[in-house]
Design brief:
The chain has 8 helices and 20 strands. With about 375 residues, the protein is of the alpha+beta class. The strands form 5 sheets. A 6-stranded mixed beta sheet has the order 6-7-8-3-9-10, sandwiched between helices. Strand 12 and strand 13 form a beta hairpin. The radius of gyration is 25 Å and the shape is elongated. The two termini are about 45 Å apart. Bound molecules: adenosine-5'-diphosphate and magnesium ion.
């Protein structure tokens, strides 16, 4: 049987040492190497200004590639014009044509490309059905809600039937509730189309919930590429550790020592008992950065080794309670189930869950694996 590719067929995207140096000499993307598999939804996440849009625009062909190689499918496309790359991009600031109806907005790009009227009509119909825009086809953008407009913007990408969808913070202009429902819609759309998608966001929750894999970017440098849970469980460095997860991972700096079990000396005559952990002896007495997720802190039973921080702020969010704690000079956040509702000023005996410790080099921030 023949494999059918061509228009509408999906493709992988491969970046090999892709770099962007802007004319002023600023390197916005340093030698990015990763692959988006055929049909994968890959999320590019990082703080504002880290180079996400630059990277996406290079894939789209809207920005030249200074060095390195970009492939879409098995074709090197560094020098291929955007319109010949068979991609469609959705932006945060999607501009719909105000004088055109939704239907005309959806079909306009295809009309420019010279598609036959019947083809346009059938593609617009398909997209309208997929995005539930059918009832809106005759309306003008001015009367649509923000969410409906963003769906039209998605629809304009959909009718192109591209090999690759590129989405640059498409939900950032929507309010929190709408963002949530559109996020689910995009996940559903991806499942339905089985399309290759690169989705850019600065929002770590969006990244974790949408991405099959995530590329974490900081200052134009890729920090780690992996599945959401692998990033959460084994962050490669302190940046990834504290960027993903809300509230963020607690990071305590101190020296490890053993007396009555393993402890972390925080330096201000305070120390924290740690669960039994098989650390290399060479780490003892050494400066280290230790990470503990908020959910790995528990109210200690009476016979457990514990430390006792003071509760400074309590944030009940219904399903969970976040407690902001102080232990000596150290601030900490714990996440409890709602049955544990501490009061401000309480001194809470806490223990740390076994197997929950993360260790990092105190200077470089690079993860120190427990077993070599
Ligand atoms: N044309 C340009 N010339 C010089 N620097 C630029 C240009 N465009 C963007 N930058 C810089 O490149 C960095 C990355 O920008 P961008 O890719 O837009 O980041 P993000 O999308 O992650 O917020 C930023 O520091 C930005 O100021
Ligand atoms: Mg951007």
């Amino acid at each position: 049987m023949l494999a059918v590719t061509g228009e509408g067929g999906m493709a992988s995207v491969q970046l090999e040492q892709v770099r962007k140096t802007y004319p002023n000499g600023f390197v916005a993307v340093h030698d990015a190497t990763f692959e988006v598999a055929d049909g994968e939804l890959l999320v590019l996440v990082g703080p504002s200004g880290c180079g996400k849009s630059t990277l996406l625009r290079m894939i789209a062909g809207l920005e030249t590639i200074s060095s390195g190689r970009l492939r879409i499918g098995d074709r090197v496309v560094n020098d291929v014009a955007p319109k010949d790359r068979d991609i469609a991009m959705v932006f945060q600031n999607y501009a719909l044509y105000p004088h055109m109806t939704v239907g005309e907005n959806l079909g306009f790009g295809l009309k420019l490309r010279g598609l036959a009227r019947a083809d346009i009509a059938s593609r617009v119909d398909d997209a309208a059905r997929t995005l539930e825009l059918g009832a809106l086809l005759d309306r003008k953008p001015a009367v649509l809600s923000g969410g409906q407009r963003q769906r039209v913007a998605l629809g304009r990408a959909l009718v192109r039937q591209p090999q690759v969808f590129l989405l640059d913070e498409p939900l950032s202009n929507l309010d929190a509730k709408l963002r949530l429902s559109m996020r689910v819609e995009i996940a559903r759309l991806h499942r339905q189309l089985k399309a290759t998608m690169v989705y850019v966001t600065h929002d770590q929750i969006e990244a974790m919930t949408l991405g099959q894999r995530i590329v974490v970017l900081k200052d134009g440098v890729i920090q780690q590429v992996d599945t959401p849970m692998a990033l959460y469980r084994h962050p490669a460095n302190l940046f990834v550790a504290t960027f993903l997860g809300s509230p963020a991972m607690n990071v305590l700096r101190g020296r490890l020592h053993r007396s009555d079990g393993l402890r972390l000396d925080l330096g201000d005559r305070t120390s924290i008992p740690l669960p039994a952990t098989d650390i290399p002896d060479a780490w003892l007495g050494q400066e280290i950065a230790m990470g503990i997720r908020p959910e790995a802190l528990h109210v200690a039973g009476s016979h457990e080794p514990s430390f006792a921080p003071e509760v400074e702020v309590v944030e009940p969010i219904g399903s969970d309670v976040f407690a902001n704690l102080r232990f000596g000079s150290q601030g900490l956040v714990a996440r409890f189930s709602p049955e544990t509702l501490p009061a401000v000023g309480d001194v809470l005996p806490l223990s740390i869950e076994a197997g929950a410790l993360h260790f990092f080099d105190p200077e470089s921030g690079v993860r120190r694996p427990l077993s070599a």
